[in-house]
Amino acid sequence: MILPIYLYGQPVLRGDNEEIPADYPNLKELVANMFDTMYNADGVGLAAPQVGLSIRLLVIDADILSDDFPECKDFKRAMINPRITERSEEQVSMDEGCLSFPGLHEKVSRAKSIRITYLDEEFVSHEEELHGFAARVAQHEYEHLEGGVFIDNISPIRKQLSKGKLNNIIKGTVRCAYRTKVVGK
Fold first, then answer.
1. Quick one: 5-181 is in which CATH superfamily?
2. Counting Cβ atoms within 10 Å, is residue 35 exposed (0-12), middle (13-18) or buried (19+)?
3. Residue-averaged pLDDT of the chain
4. CB-based burial of residue 16 (10 Å sphere; 0-12 exposed, 13-18 middle, 19+ buried)?
5. Alpha-carbon span 132 to 88, nearest angstrom
6. Cα–Cα distance measured from residue 77 to residue 61, given in angstroms and rounded to the nearest whole number
7. What's the pTM?
8. Sign (positive/negative) of CA torsion 8, 10, 15, 21?
């Protein structure tokens, strides 16, 4: 089932997110719905707050980018209760966009590599070291679980220059090719 993606201005994008217990109802169905929603919107990652849920869950499928970023080959994960435990000091700056910010792209600096722990859909524990674009995607989605969004990482002048676009997203006057939920609707 395709879920609506919550756009900038929705309080759930800035809230606290709860750990998911092993008995969370319909978790596998939710994960499948999040993947379907992400694919429908041509995304490579999606976090639970972006579909209105204040829980620590994200999905990623960056395999489509593997021609340009080999580290993304077969990088498809559902991450339950993830925690980034290490970040490299070396940063890389690249353009990013976000399904909750349609039409907005900005340069964001992120750690070149990270170490992340998480549970899969069977609640099996994993620890991975991610590099390059795979690390970027994981950090972007993880930031949603921490109540942050990618524009938190841009300069004040870039935020000011993006103010018109941000206001249009809040007002719901942006066009999207996917289902959305805007403030007050």
1. Peptide deformylase (3.90.45.10)
2. middle
3. 96
4. exposed
5. 11
6. 7
7. 0.95
8. negative
